[in-house]
Amino acid sequence: MAKPVISFQNVSFRYDENQPWVLKNVSFEIHKNEWVAIIGHNGSGKSTIAKLLNGLLFPQKGEIAINGKPINEETVWDIRKEVGMVFQNPDNQFVGATVQDDVAFGMENRGIPREEMEKRIDETLQAVGMGEYRLTEPHRLSGGQKQRVAIASVLAVSPEVLILDEATAMLDPRGREEIMHTVANLQQSKELALITITHDLHEVVQADRVIVMNEGEIWDEGLPREIFSKKDELQKIGLDVPFITALAAELQKNGIALQREPLY
Ligand code: ADP
């Protein structure tokens, strides 16, 4: 099998040496073209994983590597070019006066030539379904549209890894659906290792693999339907399997596949 894009090896982390470990011996690998959903209740360590992945934090034990390159103080600036992140609050992610200025911003910082920038603005806005909004002022957009522009801005600098950390948490159901649809499309068209972090189990149905975090440890890992079939155990660690999803998992177990796995 090809080399993983992301490798976490026996990673332990605590914010302070007087505080408990918030990640305990966590190991996983993620490959190109793979969509992995990381789920877990609040405080289980999901965001800490995201921050370790782009070098905002460094682990006290273990090793994290991107494309075989370990993340450390020397490599961190290069690594950040490879790892794009989209966060929870759509309003905190805008710097430009128009959508196109915003998408251009990260590229300007990297000295990408004007012509290439134009091309990438077009391509990435098309990829997130926002091609018609190039000249729109960000404050006129809905939450879901803002997050789609945030994704385009990250994609414009061609990362190898895209992480969405609770990127739908502040959106209404329609905005969430927009983002999940966008993510599913991207995964098919871009060569990315994609991580979505969420506490909402609706959002993992389409992922290739699910990592379940609990109290700083990997509690389980598998296909969405394998994870969903453990409804009662999940409930004990604070995760509610949506009724419709549990039903779909149950039907699949009995050989009845739904044509499209329901999102909402
Ligand atoms: P999640 O994303 O799953 O909600 P986090 O990774 O944010 O979990 O948090 C894991 C644990 O680390 C929690 O117990 C949280 O209180 C603690 N924590 C998070 N950020 C900090 C910080 N800056 N300083 C100290 N403890 C923190």
TrEMBL record:
Its main location: membrane. Keywords: ATP-binding, Cell membrane, Membrane, Nucleotide-binding, Translocase, Transport. Residues 6-240 form the ABC transporter domain. InterPro entries: AAA+_ATPase (IPR003593), ABC_transporter-like_ATP-bd (IPR003439), ABC_transporter-like_CS (IPR017871), ABC_transpr_CbiO/EcfA_su (IPR015856), ECF_ABC_transporter_ATP-bd (IPR050095), EcfA_1 (IPR030947), P-loop_NTPase (IPR027417). It is a peripheral membrane protein. GO terms for molecular function: ATP binding; ATP hydrolysis activity; ATPase-coupled transmembrane transporter activity; cobalt ion transmembrane transporter activity. It comes from the Bacteria. PROSITE patterns: ABC_TRANSPORTER_1, ABC_TRANSPORTER_2. Signal peptide: none annotated. GO terms for cellular component: ATP-binding cassette (ABC) transporter complex. It is found in: Cell membrane. The keyword Zinc-finger does not apply. Belongs to the ABC transporter superfamily. This is Energy-coupling factor transporter ATP-binding protein EcfA1. It comes from Compostibacillus humi. The gene is ecfA1.
